[in-house]
């Protein structure tokens, strides 16, 4: 069975493109190799995803590992109005 080529991946209602992964990685100041190691995917997978903006065949669980790795590190993927990424706001500290 052939998998259709897509320009983006969908995780629930979230639309993810290679540029989002690249921007999220930049927010964390991670190299492609660091992301690959932390997400437990091949370095070439990260390169392809970012270079082709998601228009490659890729398993859903691989994309989810990459997204979850970013989310654990504090990155939030947005899909409001214009899709993007940002660091999650930190909770205000309570005074003692």
Give the key terms.
two-stranded antiparallel ribbon, 4 helices, 42% helix
3D structure, described in words:
- By secondary structure, the chain is of the alpha+beta class.
- It has a single domain (9-87), classed as 434 Repressor (Amino-terminal Domain) (Orthogonal Bundle).
- The protein is built from four helices and four strands.
- Strands 1-2 form a two-stranded antiparallel sheet. It has a two-stranded antiparallel ribbon with strand order 3-4.
- A hairpin with a 2-residue loop joins strand 1 and strand 2 (14-16).
- The termini are far apart.
- Residues 1-7 have low confidence and may be disordered.
Output the CATH topology.
Answer: 434 Repressor (Amino-terminal Domain)
The arrangement of helices and strands along the chain is: EEHHHHEE
* The first-level CATH class name: Mainly Alpha
CATH superfamily: lambda repressor-like DNA-binding domains
Going by helix content, strand content and strand pairing, the class is alpha+beta
Return the domain count: 1
Report the helical percentage: 40-55%
Task: Give the overall silhouette.
Answer: globular
| CATH architectural type | Orthogonal Bundle
Strand order of the largest sheet: 1-2
Radius of gyration: 14 Å
List how many beta strands DSSP finds.
4
Low-confidence stretches: 1-7
Strand content is 5-15%
Number of helices: 4
């Amino acid at each position: 069975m052939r998998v259709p080529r897509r320009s983006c991946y969908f995780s629930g209602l979230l639309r993810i493109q290679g540029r989002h992964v690249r921007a999220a990685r930049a927010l964390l100041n991670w190299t492609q190799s660091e992301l690959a190691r932390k997400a437990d995917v091949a370095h070439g997978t990260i390169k392809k995803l970012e270079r082709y903006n998601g228009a490659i065949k890729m398993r859903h669980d691989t994309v989810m590992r990459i997204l979850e790795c970013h989310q654990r590190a504090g990155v939030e993927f947005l899909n409001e109005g214009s899709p993007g990424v940002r660091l999650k706001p930190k909770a205000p500290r309570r005074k003692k």
